[in-house]
């Protein structure tokens, strides 16, 4: 990797500019980014937190294809560009169109027809980390809105509405744990956009000045609402007054839906119940914008000097700098055996340049070992977030990892 002094001119979003300058991503074109070694490590850390929490509620990981069979989407009317206006479609040699997956309800529902026939096959939930393609009109927000982006999408399958409700509540708890672990404390569950889904879907909104959404909240933030649901009956139901709600910009990091029969009906996902009667499968779906989450974290915690990663998603814990011959040798010694936690800046560069890059890259701790600190038997450990430096005995240095 290399850091850059300036962000590319066409990168107007702060997350895109900082992530590019610090060597996390490379912009191919508007809304399309490559993840470089540091960036990929952040993505993997985010995925692992999500994976652990979804496995804990019984989710099974799968990976579905990106190329989509139009026949399935025609059954729900969603291959039409009028119905879904963000399709990327491509011609197949020999004729015909394929779609590039914007989401996966249709294929997953169809796939499960091969695995669900009896009530004994239910319930279960599957999820994936998958690249989605969407021809978004605006793609000027860095990795917050991609035309190609990483999503976690989970789908659950149930015999009854009560069972769907129960699982939905479990997912809500899992999501609360996920966003807390990601360090995104200011993430709230809100009612999603109006229409028939208002009661059956929720969004997860992180307060963020550059977020594209607007949310309304009461003083203790026990009620956080999307703009679309500020209806008098909703407010009355929640016991809040419009004039008592403050407003802020926010980014949607996830959302969850009780789909019920929305896809299982048109695609014919059925099962035979205990009384030998055919029934339609109840479904739920649950999304998290993995690459958007990385952009939100980058935006939310960055300061004037660069990125500031929460420990849980930082690509490495420590940025290590050795100064002088003995300092470099001692740093090398500390690095050996801890390669997965330490980014060792062993470039032939001035310490000042290394310190500036340490701040730009934003790992939680910077460790400096020099001839001078060795004379004291210590290393200098600086916290990126606060800028505070403390001395740690060289023989105790591993305790900071
Ligand atoms: P938005 O309103 O931001 O377009 P959406 O309602 O279209 O989101 P879903 O289709 O439900 O989103 O996707 C699930 C999650 O994927 C969203 O909550 C969001 O975090 C993320 N996401 C959606 N579109 C994008 C995008 N273009 N780039 C990056 N992440 C996205
Ligand atoms: Mg969208």
Salient structural properties:
9-stranded mixed sheet, Rossmann fold, BirA Bifunctional Protein, domain 2, 401 residues, binds adenosine-5'-triphosphate, elongated, binds magnesium ion, 5-stranded mixed sheet, 2 domains, alpha+beta
Overview of the structural elements:
This protein is of the alpha+beta class. It has 2 domains: 14-301, BirA Bifunctional Protein, domain 2, CATH 3.30.930.10; 318-400, Anticodon-binding domain (Rossmann fold). Helices cover 29% and strands 29% of the residues. The protein has 11 helices and 21 strands. The protein has helices spanning 14-21, 37-56, 70-75, 105-112, 161-181, 232-238, 264-267, 290-301, 324-335, 351-361, 371-376; strands at 25-29, 32-35, 59-61, 67-68, 88-91, 97-100, 124-133, 148-158, 187-191, 201-207, 213-217, 224-226, 246-260, 270-272, 278-280, 282-289, 318-323, 342-344, 365-370, 378-383, 389-393. Strands 3, 7, 8, 9, 10, 11, 12, 13 and 16 form a 9-stranded mixed sheet that branches. The protein has a 5-stranded mixed sheet with strand order 18-17-19-20-21. Strands 4-6-5 form a 3-stranded antiparallel sheet. The radius of gyration is 24 Å and the shape is elongated. The two termini are 23 Å apart. The model has no long low-confidence stretch (mean pLDDT 95). Residues 103, 134, 136, 145-146, 149, 151, 252-255, 287, 289, 291-292 line the site of adenosine-5'-triphosphate.
